[in-house]
Q: What sequence folds into this?
């Protein structure tokens, strides 16, 4: 079973305690953006077979939203971090690099 | 191809079964094909079959990274129905269901289609209204369904507890021509018929890159070398996002795991398919006697083909209330498939930003029942550039806001 640690309250729990909220770090397109940009914001998703940055909510706990870096192929969690950020913190990126040598963001 | 028949069985019985042929060839890939289909699951093979049968195109390769039918085609609960609310969904699923009726004869391969009837239980007032609405919509669409009361449910499926304390059965949407089929046989039957038409099915051949020149697709790079093509069809279910990434575009898809499980075999006790969407579980009995059970999907992106354990618990817990007699059954096997779910929970049958490249995916949790219709529409789309059945399922619907709000692939039992 997937086990996550909430960075807000520090509690470690099984996935039944949390609620998945989809891809993290989506940039909302502002007024005046093209239809394509707004479509991409609403619907296009990374959906990688591997490292994925995603939103979670500690639904049966403190109730706060947070972010997690997780492998969708092995369910390994590389780290969880605050939702009050627009990109993953360096220590999470370092943790991923350590476990997945050669990985780069976006998979390119 | 030697046809299967009663005479063939007698002939082979008389000579110690030495004359059975391989069902399909395993050729090495050629340098170039007119059309390459990536993915030899039901949808990919059906696409190739109807390209050959309906459009006379047979210079086709179907590439498969594992073995054919080894993905979701072999990992579903084999339910076939077409009782959808929206017109585009009802059209393509009803086409599929009607093709299933004669598929054994068309393919000369027994797919064991069993139109035993599918009932979707209404266990809340909201569901009664929803299914009555669907029944009226189906009447207009020419799909034979009716809304039946709880006593009729009990007659059709005596093992149901209709007076359950928490979720009593208040009625059901009943599609008597729905049912089940042997899922592996669907893939094998299509593969045999494709091979007979000269279509190459190449297993153990993983696509590692998609090559293009300008905006036009040129071919694919695979673990068995480079293969050129004029047109490329991506029909890879849960891995659609991975292939789209190779082709240089993104899709409105996320892949999640969907689970199913079967019990030990027991004597025949139910001859219909029952789906209980409020409590997230559905069940039918296989020809071997196993109770085949399906449930919900994971909420998070998942490629493990395994799924989370608590979903099994939730599904079984829910079904025990509706079918008290299964409470002491032992479960034999559990498995998961990777389903690709779109923003509006309806599939994608579409051209893509890369010219000559077509995609068929996003069937989510409802793909098996659609296989013949999906292949039929995808073949027409690839051969002619447009298909009436596929028209509403284009990628542009997300930009234009023309959703097919069906929960076709919703993360619930259906």
A:
């Amino acid at each position: 079973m997937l086990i996550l640690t909430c960075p807000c309250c520090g509690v470690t729990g099984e996935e039944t305690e949390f609620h998945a909220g989809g891809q993290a770090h989506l940039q909302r397109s502002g007024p005046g953006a093209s239809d394509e940009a707004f479509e991409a914001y609403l619907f296009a998703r990374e959906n990688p077979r591997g490292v994925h940055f995603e939103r979670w909510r500690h639904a049966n706990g403190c109730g706060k939203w947070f972010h997690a870096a997780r492998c969708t192929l092995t369910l390994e969690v590389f780290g969880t971090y605050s939702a009050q950020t627009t990109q993953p913190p360096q220590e999470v990126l370092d943790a991923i690099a350590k476990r997945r040598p050669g990985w780069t963001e976006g998979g390119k | 191809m030697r046809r299967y028949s009663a005479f063939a069985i007698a002939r082979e019985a008389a000579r110690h079964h030495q004359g059975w042929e391989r069902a399909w060839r395993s050729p090495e890939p050629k340098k170039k094909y007119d059309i390459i289909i990536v993915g030899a699951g039901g949808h990919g093979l059906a696409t190739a079959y109807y390209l050959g049968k309906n459009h006379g195109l047979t210079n086709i390769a179907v590439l498969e990274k594992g073995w054919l039918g080894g993905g979701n085609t072999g990992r579903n609960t084999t339910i076939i129905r077409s009782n959808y609310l929206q017109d585009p969904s009802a059209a393509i699923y009803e086409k599929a269901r009607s093709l299933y009726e004669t598929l054994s004869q068309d393919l000369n391969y027994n797919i064991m289609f069993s139109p035993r009837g599918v009932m979707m239980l209404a266990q809340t007032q909201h569901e009664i209204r929803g299914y009555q609405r669907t029944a009226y919509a189906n009447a207009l669409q020419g799909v034979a369904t009716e809304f039946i009361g709880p006593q009729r449910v009990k007659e059709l499926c005596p093992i149901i507890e209709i007076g359950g304390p928490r979720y009593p059965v208040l009625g059901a949407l009943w599609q008597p021509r729905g049912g089940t089929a042997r899922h592996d046989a669907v893939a094998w039957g299509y593969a045999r018929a494709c091979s007979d038409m000269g279509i190459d099915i190449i297993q153990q051949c993983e696509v590692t890159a998609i090559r293009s020149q300008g905006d036009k697709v040129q071919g694919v790079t695979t673990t068995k070398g480079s293969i050129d093509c004029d047109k490329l069809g991506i029909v890879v279910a849960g891995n659609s996002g991975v292939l789209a990434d190779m082709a240089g575009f993104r899709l409105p898809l996320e892949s999640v795991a969907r689970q199913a499980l079967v019990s030990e075999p027991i004597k025949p006790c139910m001859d219909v398919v029952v789906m209980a969407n409020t409590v997230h579980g559905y069940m039918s009995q296989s020809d071997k006697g196993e109770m085949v059970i399906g449930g919900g999907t994971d909420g998070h992106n998942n490629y493990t083909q395994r799924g989370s354990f608590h979903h099994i618990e939730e599904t079984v817990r829910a079904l025990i209330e509706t079918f008290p007699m299964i409470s002491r059954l032992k479960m034999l096997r559990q498995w998961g498939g990777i389903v690709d779910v779109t923003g509006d929970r309806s599939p994608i049958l579409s051209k893509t930003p890369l010219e000559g490249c077509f995609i068929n995916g996003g069937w989510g949790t409802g793909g098996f029942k659609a296989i013949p219709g999906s292949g039929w529409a995808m073949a027409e789309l690839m051969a002619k550039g447009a298909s009436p059945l596929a028209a509403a399922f284009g990628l542009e619907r997300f930009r234009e806001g023309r959703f097919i709000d069906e929960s076709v692939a919703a993360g619930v039992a259906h």
Chain B is about 30% helix and 25% strand.
